[in-house]
Amino acid sequence: MRLSRYFLPILKENPKEAEIVSHRLMLRAGMIRQQSQGIYSWLPLGKRVLDKVNGIIREEQNRAGAIEISMPTLQSAELWQESGRYEDYGKEMLRIRDRQDRPMLYGPTNEEMVTDIFRSYVKSYKSLPLNLYHIQLKFRDEIRPRFGTMRSREFMMKDAYSFDLTQDEAIHSYNKMFAAYLRTFSRLGLRAIPMRADTGPIGGNHSHEFIILADTGESEVFCHKDFVNFDIPPVDTDFDDVAGLKAIFDQWTSVYAATSEMHDAPAFEAIPEGDRLSARGIEVGHIFYFGTKYSEPMGAKVQGPDGKEHVVHMGSYGIGPTRLVPAIIEASHDENGIIWPASVAPFDCVVINMKAGDAACDGACETLYAALTKAGRDVLLDDTDDRAGTKFATADLIGVPVQIIVGPRSVASGEVEVKDRKTGARETMTIEAAINRLAV
Question: In angstroms, rounded to a whole number, what is the distance separating the alpha carbons of residues 57 and 68?
Fold first, then answer.
């Protein structure tokens, strides 16, 4: 992508409405645009990051055996009335009526709809276990949306829903998602801690929030410091291994961790003082096992091996991609801007032409751009006629992991300078060496 032809509305000054670092940097880097209270457009740079986050989420959901579908954002109120949640959900639900005066709602979550899909087609235990997921915009009319897309009214969610014949099998499905979430957040460059949590309006009696520690977190969290040493499940994790997944769950729940709603002060204080950690946290995922809360009132049953009908056991599993993007920024930035993990960076590298219009610089930049693009890398070429300081500031602000600096002096020697955005380390090398290093 050539910057001269790209839509990147950079802001030079910090927006007054932005209270936290991620909101400030997302606005300054031209990632998002507020359309109304708690509702945002995602501009090209932000959309590239969001797509990469969703790509990792999809890969890990698929690896764990979940199957992607797509459900509508507008839902019939009838399903929610059938489950008993329509009146209970509260003012966060946006209720509307269509032209036939039928009550509808902008979905805040999809337990009812996916249960309706399941009961319409699945009749036998032989079709279980089943886990269906989708990635979709949702709406919750927050009383106080804030911090940009960290807590917005319209937001994107990956929500998955598992169906099993028995409670034991449902817990295995829960453990699958537990391990998948640990892998997902690790690949996004985050250390997420699973904490016992309140189930809220979703319901159920078994729930964990995945929390990353950050000064701008919404609530106080309490945990044991041992979490930093636990191993992330490997890429070859066997998601059919009941004992293996239980061992992962048992390890990650073996020491104290709880949100403020579930905090047990005496149990926390029993931990040696040097091992106690009290901090602010950002929720990036939430998983629930809720048994037959929805399947029973909605008649989601299958024929079991005994020939009798059994109400299925369910769980739901949410990740907020539009919340994850600012969470990553909160965890990875400096005074100059964003520092993206390579896995979600909008571009793999940026080629900075220090003297656009100079034949030697232009030629070197075109060589780098063509070779790296051909190798499958996402390359941004800064071919604008801005001053050097502006080019460097833009590259640092948008956080591309590698900067390739092409100036007249270095090009005269057949060399370029390669800068690591995270460490600031610079290295001079030949153009060919730069291509060979970055093309892999």
Answer: 11
Q: What is the DSSP string of 60-91?
A: HHHHTT-EE----SEEEHHHHHHHT-TTTS-T
Instruction: From residue 175, give the alpha-carbon distance in Å to each of 67, 69, 181, 295, 331.
Output: 17, 21, 10, 20, 26
Q: What is the CA radius of gyration of the chain?
A: 24
The length of the chain in residues reads 440
Q: Which residues contact 424 (CB under 8 A, 6 or more apart)?
A: none
> Distance between CA 431 and CA 423 in Å, rounded?
21
Residues 136-150 have a mean pLDDT of 93
Q: 107 in helix, strand or coil?
A: coil
Greatest distance between any 2 Cα atoms in the chain: 81
Q: At what angle do helices 321-331 and 21-28 cross, to 10 degrees?
A: 100
Taking the model in full, what pTM does it have? Answer: 0.94
Task: Identify the CA nearest to 195 among candidates 224, 170, 168, 174.
Answer: 224
94 DSSP β-pair partners = 106
In degrees, rounded to 5, the angle at the alpha carbon of residue 424 between the alpha carbons of residues 419 and 430 is 25
Q: How many other CB atoms are found less than 10 A from the CB of residue 380?
A: 25
225 contacts: CB under 8 Å, gap ≥ 6: 274, 275, 276, 277
pLDDT confidence tier of residue 4, bands split at 50, 70 and 90: very high
Report how far apart, in Å, the C-alpha atoms of 125 and of each of 164, 274, 303, 307, 327 are: 8, 50, 6, 10, 40
Q: SS3 for 13? A: coil
Instruction: State how far the Cα of 55 lies from the Cα of 66, in Å rounded to an integer.
Output: 14
Backbone angle region of 399, left / alpha / beta, with phi > 0 → left and psi within -120 to 50 → alpha:
left
Tens of pLDDT, residues 166-207 = 999 999 999 999 999 999 999 999 999 999 876 655 555 588
- What is the token pair recorded at 194? 């699973």
Q: Which tens digits make up the pLDDT trace of 229-272?
A: 899 999 999 999 999 999 999 999 999 998 888 889 999 999 99
